[in-house]
Design goal:
Chain lengths: 347, 113
């Protein structure tokens, strides 16, 4: 957790200069400039930033790199390149998990939703593993994924779960599309999108239908002595863990139990339980492989209909209208989605 | 009660992260050993805590980062700071690390009653 001071908040470099660097700098300078523009809110998703991004040469196909931080921290993270696209597996399990998980996520978006990587322009998928010491977290820093090894007491390594990897990469997709603000309801929707597509990466990898899937997020991430099967449950939010040390899973399943808080950017990891459960209910009603229909509807809503300030009700009307466009007015899919949002008290 | 007023009290919370598990700890200097009291005062001093802004949160916070909330009470002064992990001022990091260690110690206590 090395600091950036206040640079991330009030960048002293004006946006027009960052844009110049983004257009004309060396590759690492362009990445840096784009990240700063994104952090400062000047890049509001691909739809708003084509002019700038057009100058950054995309790779155009699946291209993964994994860097080893060797337990150093840093903002942005620093590490040694240990595996790139096409290289044979490493001896380091975390490196291989990050590589394979990024690949499975790329494939879901590419094969099913015809999306070429995070930015739909073939952006490289860059992962940093072994970040910091006992770091019990994973995050998307605006341009790359960063994974800690866990503290070994509560958390195992964060690359262990493929849905965690899909979750982090989906934060990138969201950033380039709806760019949902990371607080309160838009933030909880942002989190829910990451859980939805993280779960779909896992379901597709395991070839599971909606009925066969466990609908858990982070199953196996908690150490064996912790009383809990996962970090979140989309099927039954609030039931993933109940432990004397960690406490109980705080997620609500419906609006009746919506949590008002200033912690966690307004409870973004808590209230995501509500849209998560709506997705689960819709997927179960539609049946079959979830990524085919429910996943597609959610993806198109994220790509084309949702905006930075969209709330749960906005997500409900967006997904219902996409279902109507794709499958027809009054279709089974449209009804399933409307009923799901009703069941969780959003509409 | 002038004696009581001098007591330094800290409430600390880490929320968010991928797991979204909140960890909390309250520390009152009257419960600390003398060397720890000195350490805590030094960390608060070095952080220039009472002059930090209330909220140190970027306009676009990075997804899944931790959020810290610290409330301090010292000699009748109170101040609360909410800060995102990626925006932590360097001078505040040692105090956060010290408080996280206190969270871990409390957890150990719960594990072996």
């Amino acid at each position: 957790m090395r600091p950036v001071g206040y640079m991330g908040i009030h960048s002293i470099i004006p946006p027009y200069m960052l844009e110049e660097i983004a257009k004309r700098g060396k590759p690492h300078q362009r990445d840096w400039a784009l990240r700063n523009l994104a952090l400062a809110g000047f890049i509001r998703g691909q739809r708003f930033a084509l002019g700038i991004l057009a100058s950054v040469a995309p790779v155009g196909h699946k291209s993964r790199t994994v860097y080893d931080c060797k337990h150093n921290d840093g903002e942005p993270p620093v590490g040694t390149l240990v595996r790139k696209e096409g290289d044979p597996p490493s001896k380091d399990i975390a490196v291989n998990e990050a590589y394979d998980g990024a690949g499975a996520t790329y494939d879901l978006y590419d094969d099913i939703y015809e999306r070429n990587s995070i930015d739909n322009r073939g952006m490289s998928l860059v992962s940093f593993v072994h970040y910091d010491v006992n770091y019990d977290n994973a995050f998307w820093d605006g341009s790359e994924m960063v994974y800690g090894d866990g503290d070994g007491e509560i958390f195992d390594r964060f690359t262990k779960c493929i849905d965690v990897i899909g979750h982090e990469l989906t934060h990138g997709v969201t950033q380039y599309e709806a760019n949902l603000a990371y607080s309160n309801q838009p933030g909880a929707l942002n989190e829910s999108m990451s859980d939805v597509f993280g779960s779909l990466v896992k379901q597709r990898t395991l070839k599971q239908t909606a009925a066969k899937a466990d609908w858990l997020i982070g199953a196996g991430l908690l150490m064996p002595n912790i009383h809990g099967k996962a970090l979140r449950s989309m099927k039954a939010p609030g039931t993933a863990y109940d432990d004397p040390v960690l406490g109980k899973d705080p997620q609500p399943a419906t609006m009746k139990d919506y949590v008002h808080t200033t912690s966690d950017n307004g409870g973004v990891h808590i209230n995501s339980g509500i849209p998560n459960h709506a997705f689960y209910l819709a997927a179960m009603k539609i049946g079959g492989n979830t990524w085919t229909k429910a996943g597609k509807i959610w993806y198109i809503a994220l790509r084309d209909r949702l905006r930075s300030r969209s709330n749960f009700a906005g997500a409900a009307s967006a997904t219902i209208s996409v279902a109507k466009d794709l499958y027809g007015n009054g279709s089974k899919e449209m009804k399933a989605i409307r009923n799901a949002w009703k069941a969780v008290g959003v509409i | 009660m002038p004696g009581e007023k001098k007591t330094l009290r800290v409430s600390f919370e880490r929320s968010g992260g991928f797991a979204g598990i909140t960890m909390k700890r309250a520390v009152d200097e009257k419960d600390l050993a003398p060397d720890e009291v000195q350490k805590l005062h030094q960390l608060v001093e070095e952080a220039d805590f009472f002059n930090l802004p209330d909220k140190i949160i970027p306009r676009s916070p990075q997804p899944d980062r931790f959020q810290y909330e610290l409330s301090l009470e010292k000699s009748g002064r109170r101040h609360k700071v909410t800060v995102s992990e990626e925006a932590l001022p360097e001078k505040l990091i040692p105090l956060i690390k010290w408080l996280m260690e206190k969270v871990r110690q409390a957890r150990k206590g719960k594990e072996s009653p």
